[in-house]
Amino acid sequence: MSPGPGHHADFSALPAQRPFRPPRSRSLTRVLLEPLILPLVLLLLALGVLISSLQTIASGNRLVTDSQARLTLLRHMVTDLSNMENGERGFVITGQAAFLKPYTQGRLDFQGHVAEYRPRIISERQRRHLTRLLNEVELWQREAAEPEMAARRESLERAVQLVSGGQGLAHTVRAKQVLADMISFENTRLTGAVADSRAALNRLRLLPLGVLCGLLLLAWAGRQVLRLLARYVGALTENTRRIASGEYGRRIEPLRVRELDELGGQVHQMAAAVAEREQQLQAQRAALEQVNLNLQQVNQNLQRSNGELERFAYVASHDLQEPLRTIGSYTELLARRYSGQLDERADTYVEFIMSATHRLKNLIQDLLVFSRVQRSTRTATAVDLNTLLGEVRQELQTRLAEVQGELHVRPLPTVTANRELLHHVFLNLLGNALKFRDEARAPLVGVRAERGDDAWVFHVQDNGIGIEEKYHERIFEAFRRLHHASQYGGSGIGLSVTRSAVEQHGGRIWVNSAPGAGATFSFTLPDQPTLTPQAEDT
């Protein structure tokens, strides 16, 4: 960036180039993350408490559900054992078979409840208690209940004698004690699970407060980080702005943030490089200004020379016509009066003079046309090209008849252009199409127009001898001829006049052709021509 107007950079104040070594500093990552560590830790702790509490509550719920299921089964076992004991005693006392039904049903229910309880065991202690319970129940059935009921079927006295031994009572007491221990154990686990769940719920009630504190602390830390970063970036921006304004010798103050200090060092080195480049540009600018002044002077000289050459060509061609007409007239008189009276060589010389005079006359007329096209007052009007082509056809009618040519003109538009210049354009293009014809066939020339984006495009197509591609640009140069004058007449100015007339309208002209395949000359006429009035020199 260049210094502002009226300001010049002080290149002499620049320090010597040396590798930038930032001061001892912290990394930008550390600067940005340090204030965020505490609130992030608090939020992580809160998240951990939330997860732990939810897990505790979920675990407690599962434990409570399982414990309640086991307690229910254990209470059913107590009932089953009582039913078995009451049924056995009732049968022993009464001897009635109806009391065997509670015993039998209690036995089946006990087995079913044990089967349900067994897969719910989650500790070794529960498994030992169940084993003890099953042993005591089995011993009671084998050693007391079954023998007593068998004895009662024989006699009451025998059954009473067995009951009096007390073995059955001892087994049932121990079995009930085991069940009581199992129920107590489940109640203890259930009480602990409920207490854990209640404690987890209490922690969850305090969790929103902790999360709120963490969020507030995080917002405060984020604000501090943004302020710190804004201060660092603002300081760096201000220093770089001053350097950009031309204070290339200004040193960016270290911010003790590693990345920003390294960036500042790079900016300083870049400023030094820009200052050096600025010095070179100033020297180059001064040299370019001098070259520009020289070019302006040369351009003025060229414009003056071109004007003088144009005036010279116009005056010379105009003034040469009078003596040339005199030479031509007297030469014709000489040829008519003394033809055959002099020797054959004299007649040949007269013919040479008349031929050269005719060619010189045509050349002078072409020069006048070229000069007139270059110096004409370029005013644009509405031009009906159909009418214009009709006039050109009349001018070329004799030539068309001589070569037995055909001219086909499709409907043409009305354009905004200079009528005289367009007359030269079509006259030269159609005249060339008839001149450079193929001797093996009659000339066929077509004129058509097509609409472009913002211009009309015109095409003049013939079936003549064609042009090699390497000459497609050279033929538009003044006095550029591709054939000897004895083969095809003319001065070689026509296409140069045509190009000048087209370019004065802001258009362009080109040719597509190949030897023996004819030629198509195309040119454009913009909707808004670039013609500007130019006064005649007097």
Distinctive features:
elongated; alpha+beta; 538 residues; 7% strand; two-stranded antiparallel ribbon; 5-stranded mixed beta sheet; disordered C terminus; 11 helices
Give a written overview of the molecule:
The protein is of the alpha+beta class. The strands form two sheets. Strands 2-4-5-7-6 form a five-stranded mixed β-sheet. A two-stranded antiparallel sheet has the order 1-3. The N terminus and C terminus are likely disordered.
What's the helix and strand layout?
Elements: H1 28-94, H2 100-117, H3 124-154, H4 156-164, H5 167-244, H6 258-338, H7 344-375, E1 381-384, H8 385-395, H9 397-403, E2 406-409, E3 414-417, H10 419-435, E4 444-451, E5 455-461, H11 494-504, E6 509-513, E7 519-526
Parallel strand pairs: 2-4
Antiparallel strand pairs: 1-3, 4-5, 5-7, 6-7
Helix pairs in contact: 1-2, 1-3, 1-5, 3-4, 3-5, 5-6, 6-7, 7-11, 8-10, 10-11
Task: Give a nutshell description of this structure.
The protein is of the alpha+beta class and 538 residues long. It has helices spanning 28-94, 100-117, 124-154, 156-164, 167-244, 258-338, 344-375, 385-395, 397-403, 419-435, 494-504, and strands spanning 381-384, 406-409, 414-417, 444-451, 455-461, 509-513, 519-526.
